[in-house]
Structure formats: structure tokens, C-alpha cells
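Researcher: Next entry: Histidine ammonia-lyase (Galactobacter valiniphilus).
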Amino acid sequence: MTQSITLSSSGTSFEDVLAVARHGATIEIAPEAIEAVAAVREHVERLARAETPVYGISTGFGALATKHIPSEQRVQLQKSLVRSHAAGMGDPVEREVVRALMFLRAKTLASGRTGVRPVVLETMVGLLNADITPVVREYGSLGCSGDLAPLAHCALVLMGEGEATGPDGVQRPVPELLAAAGLTPVTLEEKEGLALINGTDGMLGMLIMALSDLDALLSEADITGAMSVEALLGTDQVFRPELHLPLRPHPGQATAAADMFTVLAGSGIVASHREGDTRVQDAYSLRCSPQVAGAGRDTVEHAKLVAGRELAAAIDNPVVLPDGTVTSNGNFHGAPVAYVLDFLAIAVADLSSLSERRTDRLLDVARNHGLPPFLADDAGVDSGLMIAQYTQAGLVAENKRLAVPASVDSIPSSAMQEDHVSLGWHAARKLRRAVDNLRRVLAVEAVAAARGIELRAPLTPSPATGAAVAALRAGGVGGPGPDRYLSPDLLVAEQVLASGALLSAVEAVTGSLGGRA
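Model: Predicted structure:
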């Protein structure tokens, strides 16, 4: 059954954004939201009839804001605004990004602070419920004055123009799609074109989805890290709780350490070398896993705080205040969101690097404590997982490049009226690629660590790591043996992580990880 959510004037939640963007939830608009939108629209129409110029209602835009537009040209003004701002280039972005973008803009329209008519909000929601997805292209937003071009491509479809795909994912003429859904194109009036394009909705939607992905990936990183510790005959004692929160009160570190300690509980492999092992300490990539992954967790929590604040915002320019005043502002600047998007990319790159270092150690006969070179069946004849680590290293190298901040790279626009921009959209786009790369990096580690664990037989893994290995094998990832076509194994492992199957298998043994209830 398709989930249904209610959009009110008081805002929405992370869960609602994900439900609409990724799971096709249908939307109902609360009656009080329609009433609030209609009441505020009366203020805008009163100002539209007045002689005093008001930005966005009776003037041009950006560097043309000083030009007064007579009433008979204002409908054309809104059409021209949307058409000219729908200037994106490049490949279309993902459907879930467009749906998040539209839903978050609908959330702001429902706040009653933008001054649109109810029909504009109702049509935006109608597009989402009909699974009509505007074609939004990769390039066009500078992340200031909102995600202008991406939102303009969506607004164009409300007008019955532009490009869009239907529920089957096939692009068809927009009038045909609207007619099939029983929707009528909107003729935009004063203020409405601007209200549809002046928000941080694209970058915020991508941030919310990245945070959801990272919640799972951070727990999966704890699991693959624990598997590598076990396969490398490392110790679990550095993950004891008394070494973390009491001594260094970073909550993310304590959570990551607790996860790894729990996952390794009952390991026959770990128990086998508790006595007689001459090593004093494990390498940093093993011993310091909670410190790195935990810092990533704390970064995610900070980003959630920022995203929650942005989700509670009603971003438009000009904005209609509760007393009916329409006033200009700079709340469309994406800096708060852009900064945390860049911050997350740094954490993702470093976590990727940590995972790759553990994998490299697993494959190196000089450092893997008795495992065969590259975990190969007949080293020399077989290359084992040698090139899987090359792939992983290439992904890590890309993530390091993607960690270069976008938010410090402002470029002036609009004849120097918009002379400082956030580039938050670009920060979000590169974070999405980095998160996907992290999943692939962890998948390679999981394949290597699982093989290393099995090669320790007859020593037995912990119940939790044993469940992780079983999940990989059940998904179709092959175990130790002669060389075979390796790419399918890696792709399947990536899917086992993406589907949540690995995390679910482990949590069936350990209970919830990652501090989740």
C-alpha cells in the first residue's frame, strides 16, 4: 500500500521527505494550509494593485529589480522569469532528487509565507501524486537565490511546458502528461514564478537523502571494520567501552567502538590469539577505526541539526511576514547547507581511506599474519583480490577529490548583483557521488574480510561476523577458490550493502547497532 502523508503549514519531517522522494508516498494538503495560503495571497493581490513598486510583484528580478512592470505585463513577467531561468544543461538528475526538490518547495508554499494562490500548491502536489517528474539537468544552480535553474525546470512543467517523464519513466509531451493526470496548467500571476524558484530545496533534499544513506553506511563500516580486525588477528580489547566515552567523550566514537566490540563478541578467531601473541598494538587502521568512524558519526549529527533547521525554514524572496508586509531578505543563500555538505564529503573520504587501508593490509602477505598473498588460492597462478584493491583505491582517490569544498568557490553572477553564491547544489552533487563510492569501497572490504575469515578455518568467527559472511554468500558473492570473473562478486556485494541485507543479518544477532533503538 502506498504511504500517504499530510502537508501542513507547520512544515514536514525527514521521514516525509524520504517517503515522497524515494518511496512514492502520496500527499494530502491539510485544510488549514490551504486557508493560510489563501489568506496570505490576499496581501499580495492588494500590493499588486498599489502604486508603490514591490520586488517580485511589480518589478523585474535580480539586477533588473529597479524596473517597474505595469500590471498588464505581469503574467508575462512570471512566464518569462520561469522560461529564462530554466537554463540547465547536462544529464538529467535522479528522479528522487527531483521529487525531493518539488516536495520541499511545496512545503514552503504551504507555509503561507510565499504569497502564491492555493492552485499553485495544489498543482505542485498533483504532479508528485501523479508521478510526473520534470527533467532537471545537472548544471544551472549556484546555490544562491536558491536552486534557481532546477526549480525553474519544475515550475515550467506546472505551466504545461518544458520536459517531464511519466510514471513509466518515459518522457512525453508535458500537456499530454498533465491531461492524463487530470491536471490543468497553471497561469502564473504576481509573485508566483519567483516563489516557485527561490529556495534551497535541491541541496537540502540531497542532504537529507545523504544523511539517510550514511546512517546505514556508518554501521556497515563498523561491521566491515570488525570483520577485518578479526581476519587480521587483531584484538577487540581496544574497543572496550571504558576506553572511549569516559576518556574521550565524543559520542560517535563511543557508538562505533561499541558496535565493533559487539560484532566481535564470541569470536573464536579473536580468542585464539589472546595469549602468546607478541604484538603489542594493532595498526592504526584497525585500532583507530572508532575514532575515524566516530568522527564521521558526529559530523552526520551536526549535519542533521543544520538540515532540521533548514527543513523548518520558509525560504523565499521576497517573503510575506505575518503582518502582511512583503520584504526582501537573503535567506535563499545556501551557505549553511553547503558547509555541512562539504563537511560530510570530508568525513566520507576519510572513512573510505580507512577501509581501503584495512583491505590492503588483508592482501599483503607481509602484514596479514599468515593469510596467502592477495588471499589467492594458488598465488602466482591466481591473483586473488589484487585488482579489487586497485578498484577500491581508485574510488578512494576520487573521494579525496570530491572532498575539496565547493562552498569556498563563489563566482559572481547577475551583473554583480548576486556577487557571492554558495555553490551548495554542487556540494550536494559531489556528496552523492562520494556516498555511492563509499558503499563500493566498503563492499570490497567486505569481500576481502569475508574471504580472510573463511581462510582462518577451522577457527570460528563471531556469530555476528559469521552472519555477515553468510549474507554475502547468500547474495551470490563467491568464497575462496581459484580466480574467477571478479566484477560480479563486487557488484553483488555492493547490492548486499545497499539493500540492507548485510546490516540486517548482523543485527539479527547483535540487536540494533549505531545507537538506534
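Model: Note for the record: The mean pLDDT is 94.
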